[in-house]
Design goal:
Layout lengths: L7 H15 L2 E5 L13 E5 L8 E5 L3 H10 L11 E7 L13 E6 L2 E6 L11 H39 L1 H51 L3 H9 L8 H39 L9
Parallel strand pairs: 3-4, 4-5
Antiparallel strand pairs: 1-2, 2-3, 5-6
């Protein structure tokens, strides 16, 4: 039997639907937990319970290289600010329990559905930052309304299909239904691409700002030779470049002024010797 080739977004949505239908958990998909720059779990869930607050982040992976890169970078540890546990969710056969970082869980998608191979070690978390609550509430309600609209469209499409089948016969109705569903899929694909493009633009702008900030900080940092020069001038070796430049300019100005004073003193000394020589008696002249 051929194993289904899962796409990332498709697998994440499949997991979220599994949790909604088979567990008492409220789920959000691909939602940033706050303003720009905060983490964005693939699936975020909270138990539908007043007494047990245990949010869980599900990180979906469809390639081993992507999993290893994120684990090496420690990306998953950022989720502990917003969740009591982190679970990696992957297609069957991609990862083993021994591959999973300590404290994290593992779920696999088989042909028969989702199965848990390793549960996460749950950490105590009392509440979430205010920005995260606002994001879950506002965006969450909007997305729930969109899901309700999609379900309504599916039901309406089914009823319309049934009417067409009665009116035109099974063969013609099937062709019309396929064309109608293709149109809906195309429109949804366009909406998804627009949303991804919007997110890419935002992330690119944020990355550009971060690079600009790092470049400016790098330009302000002194080299080893410049730090030695700063020490020689009596400055802290970690001062900004503009402080070192200003101090050098002032020192140069003082040195220039000292050299001018020395030159004038030499001229005065020469004048003084010349005057003294002029006051001496000439040969054969008696001193006054």
């Amino acid at each position: 039997m051929t194993t289904k080739k899962w796409g990332h977004n498709e697998l994440a949505h499949d997991l979220a639907e599994h949790l909604r239908q088979n567990t008492a958990r409220i789920c959000w998909e691909d939602m940033q937990l706050g303003p720009a720059g905060t983490c964005r779990p693939d699936v975020y869930s909270i138990a539908h319970s007043y007494s047990k607050f245990c949010p869980v982040v599900y990180e979906v992976k469809v390639s081993v290289s992507d999993f290893r890169a994120d684990v090496t970078a420690g990306k998953y540890t950022k989720y502990f600010n917003y969740a009591g546990g982190v679970v990696f969710a992957v297609p069957e056969g991609m990862l083993k329990k021994s591959d999973i970082p300590d404290g994290c869980g593992l779920m696999i998608r088989k042909e028969s559905g989702w199965h848990t191979l390793k549960g996460p070690t749950m950490r105590q978390i009392d509440t979430l930052p205010r920005d995260a609550w606002m994001k879950l509430l506002m965006d969450g309600m909007t997305r729930q309304a969109e899901r309700t609209q999609i379900k309504s469209r599916v039901i309406n499409t089914y009823l319309s299909d049934q009417k067409l089948m009665k009116r035109h016969g099974n063969e013609i109705a099937d062709l019309v239904c396929r064309a109608h569903r293709s149109k809906e899929r195309l429109e949804q694909h366009i909406r998804d691409n627009d949303e991804r493009l919007k997110n890419l633009r935002q992330e690119s702008e944020e990355e550009l700002q971060r690079r600009r900030k790092r470049r400016e900080e790098s330009e302000e940092r002194l080299t080893d030779a410049q730090q030695d020069l700063a020490k020689a001038l009596g400055l802290d070796p970690n001062v900004p470049m503009y402080v070192l430049t200003r101090t050098l300019w002032e020192a140069t100005r003082r040195l220039t002024e000292d050299e001018e004073i020395k030159r004038l003193r030499g001229i005065l000394s020469n004048l003084e010797r010349t005057l003294n020589d002029g006051l001496k008696p000439l040969p054969g002249e008696k001193a006054a």
